[in-house]
Amino acid sequence: MTSSRLEAFSDGVLAIIITVMVLGLAVPRGDQWSDLVHTSGLGLLTYLLSFVYIGIYWNNHHHLFQLHPSVEGRVLWANLHLLFWLSLYPFTTAWLTESRVALVPTVVYGLNLLGAALAYFLLEAAIIRLPGGERLRQAIGRDLKGWLSPVLYLVGIGLAFVVPWLGLVPFVVVALMWLIPDRRVERFISSHPDSADD
Questions:
Q1: Which of 50, 99, 112, 171 could form a disulfide with 105 if both were Cys (CB 3.0 to 4.6 A apart)?
Q2: Cα-based angle 8, 55, 158 (whole degrees, multiple of 5)
Q3: How far apart (Å, rounded) are the C-alpha atoms in residues 76 and 145?
Q4: How much is the pTM?
Q5: Distance separating alpha carbons of residues 25 and 99, to the nearest angstrom
Q6: Quick count: other Cβ atoms within 10 Å of Cβ 111?
Q7: Which of 72, 60, 85 is nearest to 127 (CA)?
Q8: How far apart, in whole angstroms, are the C-alpha atoms of residue 127 and residue 65?
Q9: Which domain holds residue 159?
Q10: d(CA 10, CA 28)
């Protein structure tokens, strides 16, 4: 089966996740800048961080299926597993915000990020196991950013036990690291035009 239905479903789920997150933002009670900062300031920052993560997954998810336009049951389940972790972002983001970055919500947010990263690895592995999946393996190469991200999530979770706010630093670092455009798949497709799903 082609990946078009899987991609359309995933796009819809990610759009709903973003919508749910933005609807969870507190509206300021007053009409001054100070009201915005006191009521919604932290919420806007945590929303921005989670929004960036959703955008990163959406972008990289698209790249996965540029190289492999067909899927099977194992890929469908791996994709649902990834969507499960991503669908928790509104909950963990809201808890992080409402707790004013307390220990347990920060750790749970980190575990949510870690779970999504591991689920993405499993999705990649499921695609690589398919016939023709070696093209994805060649395109992503050693995937240093992919391996470094879970390590930084664990560092953030550990730092949260010291100072919860400090635990957020590695989470922000990973988001910034992935914001730098990752052109591995585009480079592979341009040098192997027969690998694209056109």
A1: 99
A2: 125
A3: 24
A4: 0.91
A5: 14
A6: 16
A7: 72
A8: 9
A9: 4-195
A10: 32
CB 27 within 8 A of CB 148: no
**Distance, CA of 127 to CA of 121 (rounded, Å):** 10
Total of domains in the chain: 1
Write the pLDDT tens digit of every residue in 20-35. Answer: 999 998 889 889 998 8
DSSP three-state, residue 97: helix
Structure-token match 């932290």, residue found: 42
